[in-house]
Structure to design on (272 residues):
């Protein structure tokens, strides 16, 4: 992340998940469990996009307005999280691991738009000028265009109509974009032999990749002339274990390298 973008207020102010240092020392740090988005019947647009992109409830919390204020963060927007994700990739980081406030928001919006066009999901909004809530129709998605106002807030424009403050029902969203199913260590991918327990306690994305390596090969797979081919094989194995990953983008190479390192260190510790 670049400091200038953070200072300008476009990007999140903090890279860490620690409470804002500006808070008085006597004030207890905010507890993320008090802001559980799974207790909310309706999510904001950014919360919905965070779920579509990451399928991680904690990442959704980082887009909840109350939690951001408790941590001294500015209001979020599609522009902020998208620029942050691109900056992270340019720096060689994995935005899924290093900064919980950013993700590939525009990719997620495209998936939400496709679901809206297919009449799979209802998205609500306020009609500008009329100041009344509406439900966006499939044709609104087909002929609409995403715009931003002077505060970088999202506006969906359809002809002469403008819609803002978009929200999505949580249950409806999770039905269309379900959470990844937990996979048992002795699933079909590893039923033929006891494999023990692989490395644990990793970041979400790295853990998924490390599990795919462990339960498919039990070592860093070899025989691939290019690391790109090796990483693709690992990602295919991960998607085979968790079908809900199939509509997600392939993680950064840095995530694969971390997963491979974790597996190697785990094998070394076990004396294999």
């Amino acid at each position: 992340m670049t400091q200038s973008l953070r200072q300008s207020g476009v990007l999140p102010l903090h890279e860490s998940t620690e409470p804002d240092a500006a808070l008085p020392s006597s004030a207890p740090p905010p507890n993320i469990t008090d802001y559980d988005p799974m207790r909310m019947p309706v999510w904001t647009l950014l919360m919905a996009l965070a779920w579509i992109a990451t399928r991680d409830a904690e990442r959704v919390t980082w887009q909840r307005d109350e939690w951001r204020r408790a941590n001294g963060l500015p209001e979020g927007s599609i522009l902020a999280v998208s620029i942050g994700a691109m900056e992270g990739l340019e720096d060689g980081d994995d935005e899924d691991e290093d900064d919980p406030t950013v993700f590939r928001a525009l990719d997620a919006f495209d998936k939400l738009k496709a679901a809206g066009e297919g009449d799979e999901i209802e998205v609500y909004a306020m009609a500008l000028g009329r100041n009344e809530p509406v439900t966006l129709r499939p044709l609104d998605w087909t002929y609409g265009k995403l715009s931003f106002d002077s505060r970088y807030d999202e506006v969906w424009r359809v002809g002469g109509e403008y819609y803002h403050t978009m929200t999505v029902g949580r249950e409806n969203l999770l039905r269309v974009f379900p959470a990844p199913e937990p996979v048992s260590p002795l699933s079909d991918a590893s039923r033929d032999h006891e494999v023990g327990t692989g490395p644990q306690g990793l970041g979400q994305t790295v853990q998924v990749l490390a599990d795919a390596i462990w339960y498919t090969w039990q070592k860093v797979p070899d025989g691939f002339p290019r690391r790109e081919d090796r990483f693709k094989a690992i990602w295919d194995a991960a998607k085979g274990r968790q079908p809900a990953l199939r509509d997600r983008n392939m993680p950064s190479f840095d995530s694969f390298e971390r997963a491979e390192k974790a597996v190697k260190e785990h094998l070394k510790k076990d004396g294999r």
Remarks:
- DSSP finds twelve helices and six strands in the chain.
- Residues 196 and 236 are 22 Å apart (CA to CA).
